Amino acid sequence: MARASLKEQLVTRSAPVFLERGFNAASVNDIVQAAGVPKGSFYNHFVSKEELAIEVLRRYVDDLGLDELADPAGSAIQQLREHLMANITAREAAGIEFGCLLGNFSTDTVALNEGLREAVALGFARWTEAVASAIGRAQAAGEIRNATDADTLARYIVASFEGAIAQAKTLRADGPIADFLSVTFNRVLT
Protein backbone atom coordinates (compact mmCIF):
# COMPACT_ATOMS: atom_id res chain seq x y z
CA MET A 1 0.00 0.00 0.00
CA ALA A 2 1.36 3.41 -0.94
CA ARG A 3 2.11 5.84 1.83
CA ALA A 4 -0.14 8.89 1.98
CA SER A 5 1.42 12.12 0.74
CA LEU A 6 2.58 14.58 3.34
CA LYS A 7 -0.22 16.94 2.31
CA GLU A 8 -2.77 14.15 2.77
CA GLN A 9 -1.28 13.31 6.17
CA LEU A 10 -1.59 16.93 7.22
CA VAL A 11 -5.23 17.16 6.13
CA THR A 12 -6.31 13.81 7.53
CA ARG A 13 -4.53 14.01 10.85
CA SER A 14 -5.28 17.66 11.54
CA ALA A 15 -9.05 17.10 11.42
CA PRO A 16 -9.18 15.55 14.93
CA VAL A 17 -6.87 18.28 16.22
CA PHE A 18 -9.23 20.98 14.94
CA LEU A 19 -12.26 19.08 16.25
CA GLU A 20 -10.81 18.56 19.73
CA ARG A 21 -9.05 21.91 20.20
CA GLY A 22 -10.85 24.29 17.87
CA PHE A 23 -9.24 26.45 15.22
CA ASN A 24 -7.83 29.09 17.54
CA ALA A 25 -6.29 26.69 20.07
CA ALA A 26 -4.82 24.28 17.51
CA SER A 27 -1.27 25.34 16.71
CA VAL A 28 0.78 24.46 13.66
CA ASN A 29 3.06 22.55 16.05
CA ASP A 30 0.06 20.51 17.27
CA ILE A 31 -0.88 19.77 13.66
CA VAL A 32 2.57 18.68 12.46
CA GLN A 33 3.03 16.57 15.57
CA ALA A 34 -0.30 14.79 14.96
CA ALA A 35 0.60 14.34 11.28
CA GLY A 36 4.09 13.11 12.07
CA VAL A 37 5.70 15.49 9.59
CA PRO A 38 8.37 18.19 9.91
CA LYS A 39 7.11 21.75 10.38
CA GLY A 40 8.70 22.79 7.09
CA SER A 41 6.46 20.28 5.32
CA PHE A 42 3.43 22.17 6.58
CA TYR A 43 4.52 25.37 4.86
CA ASN A 44 5.45 23.49 1.68
CA HIS A 45 1.80 22.51 1.32
CA PHE A 46 -0.19 25.26 3.04
CA VAL A 47 0.33 29.01 3.27
CA SER A 48 -1.42 29.16 6.64
CA LYS A 49 -3.34 27.24 9.25
CA GLU A 50 -6.49 28.86 7.83
CA GLU A 51 -5.82 27.37 4.38
CA LEU A 52 -5.44 23.90 5.93
CA ALA A 53 -8.59 24.37 8.02
CA ILE A 54 -10.59 25.31 4.92
CA GLU A 55 -9.45 22.11 3.19
CA VAL A 56 -10.27 20.04 6.29
CA LEU A 57 -13.71 21.64 6.46
CA ARG A 58 -14.37 21.05 2.75
CA ARG A 59 -13.60 17.36 3.18
CA TYR A 60 -15.67 17.21 6.35
CA VAL A 61 -18.70 18.49 4.44
CA ASP A 62 -17.94 16.13 1.55
CA ASP A 63 -18.08 13.27 4.06
CA LEU A 64 -21.51 14.25 5.44
CA GLY A 65 -23.23 11.97 2.91
CA LEU A 66 -25.10 14.72 1.08
CA ASP A 67 -25.26 12.74 -2.19
CA GLU A 68 -27.39 10.12 -0.46
CA LEU A 69 -30.06 12.77 0.13
CA ALA A 70 -30.31 13.38 -3.63
CA ASP A 71 -31.01 9.73 -4.51
CA PRO A 72 -34.46 9.67 -6.17
CA ALA A 73 -34.93 5.99 -5.31
CA GLY A 74 -36.66 5.09 -2.09
CA SER A 75 -38.26 7.10 0.65
CA ALA A 76 -36.87 10.62 0.98
CA ILE A 77 -37.94 10.87 4.62
CA GLN A 78 -36.16 7.59 5.37
CA GLN A 79 -33.05 8.86 3.58
CA LEU A 80 -33.15 11.99 5.71
CA ARG A 81 -33.58 9.96 8.91
CA GLU A 82 -30.66 7.70 7.93
CA HIS A 83 -28.54 10.72 7.02
CA LEU A 84 -29.10 12.39 10.38
CA MET A 85 -28.55 9.13 12.27
CA ALA A 86 -25.29 8.50 10.38
CA ASN A 87 -24.08 11.98 11.28
CA ILE A 88 -25.04 11.52 14.92
CA THR A 89 -23.21 8.18 14.96
CA ALA A 90 -20.15 9.86 13.42
CA ARG A 91 -20.23 12.61 16.05
CA GLU A 92 -20.52 10.01 18.82
CA ALA A 93 -17.62 8.00 17.35
CA ALA A 94 -15.42 11.11 17.22
CA GLY A 95 -16.46 12.02 20.76
CA ILE A 96 -19.71 13.92 21.24
CA GLU A 97 -17.88 16.19 23.67
CA PHE A 98 -16.02 17.60 20.65
CA GLY A 99 -19.20 18.49 18.73
CA CYS A 100 -19.38 19.12 14.99
CA LEU A 101 -16.59 20.80 13.03
CA LEU A 102 -19.03 23.09 11.19
CA GLY A 103 -20.64 24.21 14.43
CA ASN A 104 -17.33 24.52 16.24
CA PHE A 105 -15.73 26.60 13.51
CA SER A 106 -18.85 28.77 13.24
CA THR A 107 -18.44 29.92 16.83
CA ASP A 108 -14.64 29.72 17.00
CA THR A 109 -13.55 31.66 13.95
CA VAL A 110 -16.17 33.67 12.12
CA ALA A 111 -15.29 37.01 13.67
CA LEU A 112 -11.57 36.69 12.94
CA ASN A 113 -11.13 34.67 9.75
CA GLU A 114 -13.16 35.75 6.73
CA GLY A 115 -11.96 32.88 4.54
CA LEU A 116 -12.91 30.30 7.12
CA ARG A 117 -16.23 32.04 7.77
CA GLU A 118 -17.01 31.78 4.07
CA ALA A 119 -16.05 28.08 4.06
CA VAL A 120 -18.33 27.43 7.05
CA ALA A 121 -21.17 29.34 5.35
CA LEU A 122 -20.67 27.30 2.18
CA GLY A 123 -20.66 24.08 4.19
CA PHE A 124 -23.93 24.97 5.89
CA ALA A 125 -25.42 26.04 2.53
CA ARG A 126 -24.47 22.75 0.85
CA TRP A 127 -25.91 20.75 3.74
CA THR A 128 -29.11 22.80 3.90
CA GLU A 129 -29.66 22.51 0.13
CA ALA A 130 -29.31 18.72 0.30
CA VAL A 131 -31.75 18.49 3.21
CA ALA A 132 -34.19 20.82 1.40
CA SER A 133 -34.03 18.62 -1.68
CA ALA A 134 -34.94 15.53 0.35
CA ILE A 135 -37.74 17.38 2.15
CA GLY A 136 -39.14 18.66 -1.16
CA ARG A 137 -39.20 15.13 -2.56
CA ALA A 138 -40.83 13.84 0.63
CA GLN A 139 -43.48 16.56 0.44
CA ALA A 140 -44.17 15.78 -3.23
CA ALA A 141 -44.52 12.08 -2.38
CA GLY A 142 -46.91 12.82 0.50
CA GLU A 143 -44.44 11.59 3.14
CA ILE A 144 -44.48 15.04 4.75
CA ARG A 145 -47.76 16.93 5.01
CA ASN A 146 -46.20 20.02 6.63
CA ALA A 147 -46.77 22.73 4.01
CA THR A 148 -43.89 24.93 5.19
CA ASP A 149 -41.53 25.39 2.26
CA ALA A 150 -38.66 22.89 2.07
CA ASP A 151 -35.92 25.53 2.34
CA THR A 152 -37.33 26.88 5.61
CA LEU A 153 -37.74 23.38 7.05
CA ALA A 154 -34.19 22.49 6.00
CA ARG A 155 -32.70 25.58 7.67
CA TYR A 156 -34.67 24.74 10.81
CA ILE A 157 -33.50 21.12 10.82
CA VAL A 158 -29.82 21.93 10.25
CA ALA A 159 -29.91 24.65 12.92
CA SER A 160 -31.74 22.34 15.34
CA PHE A 161 -29.27 19.53 14.66
CA GLU A 162 -26.35 21.86 15.39
CA GLY A 163 -28.06 23.08 18.56
CA ALA A 164 -28.68 19.53 19.75
CA ILE A 165 -25.04 18.61 19.10
CA ALA A 166 -23.85 21.74 20.95
CA GLN A 167 -26.04 20.92 23.94
CA ALA A 168 -24.97 17.26 23.93
CA LYS A 169 -21.36 18.46 23.79
CA THR A 170 -21.86 20.75 26.77
CA LEU A 171 -24.03 18.41 28.84
CA ARG A 172 -22.17 15.25 27.78
CA ALA A 173 -25.55 13.61 27.45
CA ASP A 174 -27.60 12.36 24.52
CA GLY A 175 -30.94 13.81 25.68
CA PRO A 176 -30.79 16.83 23.34
CA ILE A 177 -30.13 14.54 20.37
CA ALA A 178 -33.01 12.25 21.30
CA ASP A 179 -35.28 15.29 21.67
CA PHE A 180 -34.15 16.63 18.28
CA LEU A 181 -34.92 13.34 16.54
CA SER A 182 -38.27 12.94 18.28
CA VAL A 183 -39.51 16.46 17.54
CA THR A 184 -38.12 16.46 14.00
CA PHE A 185 -39.69 13.19 12.90
CA ASN A 186 -42.80 13.13 15.11
CA ARG A 187 -43.82 16.79 14.81
CA VAL A 188 -41.96 18.88 12.23
CA LEU A 189 -41.67 16.40 9.36
CA THR A 190 -45.13 14.87 9.51
From TrEMBL:
GO molecular function terms here? Answer: DNA binding
User: SUPFAM superfamilies attached here?
Assistant: Homeodomain-like, Tetracyclin repressor-like, C-terminal domain
Q: Does the keyword DNA-binding apply?
A: yes
Instruction: Give a single Pfam family match.
Output: TetR_N
Protein origin, superkingdom: Bacteria
- DNA binding happens at which residues? 27-46
Every copy of the HTH tetR-type domain together lies at: 4-64
Report keywords, A-Z.
DNA-binding, Transcription, Transcription regulation
Protein name, UniProt field: TetR/AcrR family transcriptional regulator
